[in-house]
Every structure is written in structure tokens, then in C-alpha cells.
Amino acid sequence: MSKTRRVFTDRQPRRQPSIGRQFVEGVLLLALGSAALAFLSWLPQKDEGLLVVSEAIADLIGGISQLLEGLLGLAAVIVVALLLVGALLALISGLIRLFRSLKRTFSPRAPKSVASMPRRRRNRR
After folding, report:
1. CA-CA distance, 39 to 33, in Å (whole number)?
2. Is the pTM of this model over 0.70?
3. How far is residue 2's CA from residue 9's CA, in Å, rounded to a whole number?
4. Residue 26 backbone class (left: φ over 0; alpha: ψ -120 to 50; beta: rest)
5. Per-residue pLDDT tens for 8-34?
6. 67: which of 38, 51, 57, 58 lies 20 to 30 Å off by Cα?
7. How far apart are CA 85 and CA 91, in angstroms?
8. CA 57 to CA 51: how far, in whole Å?
9. Could you give the dihedral angle defined by the CA atoms of residues 57, 59, 60 and 64, in that order, rounded to the nearest 10 degrees?
């Protein structure tokens, strides 16, 4: 026995449908197709076909333009909201830094500066 694993060995091959079933499915599909073509040929008699198509295209273009206008308005609102948040963050961080600088300026004990260590010279060879 080989070491490779057979995964789908238990599956039986698909049986073809019976001749009667294939015949009935074919007749039903032919009936559906002919009924759809008959309906489509009857439709222009009721309304003018070109008028229906032009109205559908006009409605589609109008809908797309309304969608784009709505998306543009939404983008404008998002940009204004981001500018507002950025301005508020700038104000808050500016106030915090100003408060820290005033606190350091008027504190009773000024922080001592760290004395620098003398530099060691390298021996040149």
C-alpha cells in the first residue's frame, strides 16, 4: 500500500439523470424562454419601448447623481469633524504646555541643572 493518503475514495460517481427527467427539464426551460420572449414582445405594444428605456436611463442617472451628491456632503461633514477634533486637540495640548511652563517658572524650587562630567581625553598613539 502506498504512503499517500486517498481523500475522496468513498465517493460514488454521479449518476446521470434519467431520460424522462432530462426531457421534462428541457420542455420546461423551452416554455419559460418562449413565455419570456412573448412577454417582451407584448411590452412595447402597451407602452412605447424607447420611452420606457429613456425614462429608466434618466432615473438611473438622476439616482447616481444624488448618490454622488450625498457622498460628497458626507465627506465634507467628515472633514469638518476632523478639523474640529484637531483644533480641540491643539487647544488642549497648548494649554497643558503653557500650564507646565508657568508651573516651572513660578515654582519655589527651580530644578537644578545637571553638572556635566569632564570629558576624558583619548590618548593619541
Report:
1. 10
2. no
3. 14
4. alpha
5. 666 677 788 788 888 899 999 999 999
6. 51
7. 10
8. 10
9. 140
For 68, how many CA atoms within 13 A lie in the half-sphere containing its CB? 6
- Say how far apart CA 95 and CA 93 lie, in whole Å: 5
pLDDT in tens for each of the 125 residues of the chain?
Answer: 566 766 666 667 778 878 888 889 999 999 999 999 888 887 766 667 677 778 889 999 999 999 999 999 999 999 999 999 999 999 999 999 998 888 888 887 755 665 666 677 777 76
Torsions phi, psi for 39 (to 5 deg): -65, -45
Q: How far apart are CA 105 and CA 70, in angstroms?
A: 53
